[in-house]
């Protein structure tokens, strides 16, 4: 027993691993492990029984955490958009735009995956939707099977890192930073990761063109009556939209100055991008609406299709993120606004009925309950673990690693990479992050950078062969046996599990490369954050002491007889809580709060002078003359 008492924290952590390996659900494993070791710890006098009295307060704190309300809001927003047919429309439209290019369908999958990530925030929804819709099309036109499977699975995992991501909300709560800062920090790395995916497909199109063929002409459905493609008007609208966004970005400081009514010298890059993009896409939508309403015929079928399918969800995303980045709304309020906007869009397009809405609400409830139960279990475990000085054990274990902060980050990311083989990102966020964040902060590591870094790393949990959840989701919808294509009538071969695993590996390596880039260049995350205000507490303390020592200010009595008159014992320079001293009679402002009398008493000694008629005495009273 002495060994258990001396090593209670590591024994408890090992006990948690045993609970998990027994196959119990994670939430109940965490809670059961915490309660079991709480009982053992009390019996062995490791900590007092009063530790368990803290548990109700911790659980009440979870229930009253406004930040976590953003989880069901953003989940509902994404599921409503997904169930209203947005994914099908986006894949069909973007596929037509990029179809004539080699690798165009893979590029469409990546771009639509990024867009779905910014709306759904749920990996399963993105992967299953794109697997059902785009995988048969890619196989129909001769795409390499591993590449098609890998592109779909990897683009679905972008929901982990692109704001408004659910994992970033959880990460912000666990490291004690604001969700807005976490979104800003993840903005640049998220779109860099999308760019790396695109670069990989482009390189394949150059060096292995047979793997990524272009769509044949007969598959390009959006054509004009004269046979033209309609790219000219689409290019014109895009150029006008991009030009407007560029002008807005260049003059964002002036826009902020006009909006806030005070001079703004600079604006963070992420705010510029989101607000400028919002203005650009709003202009494109306005042009399309005017063209259709007045029947001007200026836009081609392709341009109208792209505008009406692509712009509304983009505008919703930019409005939600823009209000969060500008500080107009909290992430919880932004999520609520996004959910309402998704409902309006779904009903307006007549693609959402009450049955689909009930399904979306049921799925949202399940996912939110799943997260809350894990959080409750993790809170029970962490309370007992902290009472047993577990954080000190973790700190001693990790703070003396060779290489300082860099060595710590490398070891932590390697550990998270391997833990992600077995644990979901929710489980990693609630179990591992609370143990690592205090050590990172002590080593001087910015916790927003640390959180974004771990979020990128946790993406790999969805692509790990053989346990990656995105691979399981894709396997559930990919053809497992030969089938006849409904368009060409050809017999198509199935997609094997090994082909899915093989296709995921290149994208998994890209994600790990992105982790290395973030470790080497932390400014990719921290550069988007506002500079912290430096506060010199010593200087503030000295200034307060000087203010208190001034003879005519503060709460004390006046220093001498001369201060018994006007301005005696002031709160500031006149009047106050102090009493005037014996001596001369009090003037019109004696004992005043301000200049018209107040909480202080009058003088003692001499004749008390009444206040002037235009300056009533207020709350104070005058002492009678002796």
UniProtKB/TrEMBL annotation:
Q: Any stretches that span the bilayer, and where are they? A: 7-28, 67-85, 105-135, 147-170, 190-210, 231-253, 273-294, 306-328, 334-352, 364-385, 405-426, 447-474, 500-521
Q: Major place of localization?
A: membrane
Q: Which GO terms describe its molecular function?
A: transmembrane transporter activity
Whether Transport counts among this entry's keywords is yes
Residue span of region Disordered: 548-626
Which superkingdom, per the lineage? Bacteria
Instruction: Cite the TRAP C4-dicarboxylate transport system permease DctM subunit domain residue spans from the record.
Output: 13-524
User: Keywords assigned by UniProt?
Assistant: Cell inner membrane, Cell membrane, Membrane, Transmembrane, Transmembrane helix, Transport
Query: Where does it reside?
Result: Cell inner membrane
What is the membrane topology here? Answer: Multi-pass membrane protein
One Pfam match = DctM
Ranges annotated as biased composition (Low complexity): 579-588
> Where does this protein have compositionally biased stretches of type Gly residues?
565-578, 589-605
- One cellular-component annotation, GO: plasma membrane
Function recorded in the entry: Part of the tripartite ATP-independent periplasmic (TRAP) transport system.
What PANTHER family is this protein classified in? SIALIC ACID TRAP TRANSPORTER PERMEASE PROTEIN SIAT-RELATED, SLL1103 PROTEIN
Q: What is this protein called?
A: TRAP transporter large permease subunit
Protein species of origin: Ottowia cancrivicina
Q: What is the lineage of its organism?
A: Bacteria, Pseudomonadati, Pseudomonadota, Betaproteobacteria, Burkholderiales
